[in-house]
Design goal:
Heat Shock Protein 90, phosphoprotein, disordered C terminus, transferase, two-stranded antiparallel sheet, alpha+beta, kinase, nucleotide-binding, HATPase_C_sf, 273 residues
Length: 273
């Protein structure tokens, strides 16, 4: 029997690694909690409570980055929000960096949503570590949108690029993850900002789900629009557009055009990573 026959599946190894790290963080939390009980003085207790809060944040981040099981669709916006909140607690709040979200509901297959989360986590962490905000209040913005059958995720910060190190290994890893989604990553930069754009297409299953959601939203908004039209001053019937009174959702193009160029209206230079 060959050695290959004894190899464990990749998913099993990842789960085992996750459990070991989680157990280590839990043990550290237990030690800090015990130290808080024994500590004398408000200052010592406050410092230990801060340590416990940081450990809780790291535990939440680690939980969000665990590889999912099952085939269910996951709302990518909710996943990114939860991940960002955990990163605030574990890192960004202590660095006085504000994290801002502008997202819309985009159901993705759990494995693909997990890969998106890995990329977003790395982009936020890299911005927090390498950006130089000078006298500006640090801000990192995450925008997640869907245009037809194309998903775009933008991570933008207001830090200076000139002092950033060349994290070649991380760039290659993020690019590999983007390619596994069928997409790509591009970077735009200026004197006081850096933006990274991840763009990838929906799968057929994801397209059907997102199309169904868009159709339901249009149906729900029709009565409201019709009621508003009744109370407003209307032009003569001949001038009224039938299409305006009955909006129709546009079904995503199975082969959408690249929307990266539409995300930034300014002439900032875009550099492929």
């Amino acid at each position: 029997m060959s050695q290959d026959s004894h190899r464990l599946p990749e998913g099993v190894l990842l789960r085992e690694s996750h459990h070991r790290v989680a157990d280590g963080v839990a043990s550290a939390l237990d030690l800090v909690s015990a130290a808080i009980v024994r500590a004398e003085g408000a200052e010592a207790k406050a410092a230990l409570n801060d340590v416990a809060s940081l450990l809780h944040g790291h535990a939440e981040v680690h939980l969000m980055l665990a590889r999912p099981q099952g085939e269910a669709l996951v709302d990518a916006a909710a996943h990114v929000h939860k991940l960002g909140c955990a990163m605030r607690r574990s890192r960004l709040d202590g660095m006085r960096i504000q994290l801002i979200f502008d997202t819309e509901c985009v159901p993705l297959q759990s494995e693909r949503c997990w890969r998106l989360g890995l990329i977003v986590h790395d982009l936020i962490a890299t911005a927090a570590k390498h950006a130089c905000f000078d006298a500006r209040a640090g801000e990192i913005k995450v925008k997640l949108t869907r245009r037809g059958a194309l998903v775009n995720c933008v991570v933008l910060d207001n830090g200076s690029r000139s002092v950033r190190s060349d994290a070649g290994r991380r760039v290659r890893t993020d690019n590999d993850l983007a390619r596994s989604l069928g997409g790509r990553i591009e970077q735009g930069f200026g004197s006081e900002f850096t933006s990274v754009v991840l763009s990838f297409p929906l799968t057929e299953r994801e397209r059907q789900t997102n199309w169904g959601m868009a159709t339901r939203r249009m149906r729900l908004t029709r009565p409201v629009k019709a009621k508003s039209a009744d109370t407003a001053a209307l032009p003569p019937p001949a001038a009224v557009s039938h299409q305006a009174n009955h909006p129709v959702a546009a079904k995503p193009d199975p082969k959408p055009s690249d929307a990266l160029g539409q995300l930034f209206s300014s002439p900032n230079r875009m550099v492929a990573l």
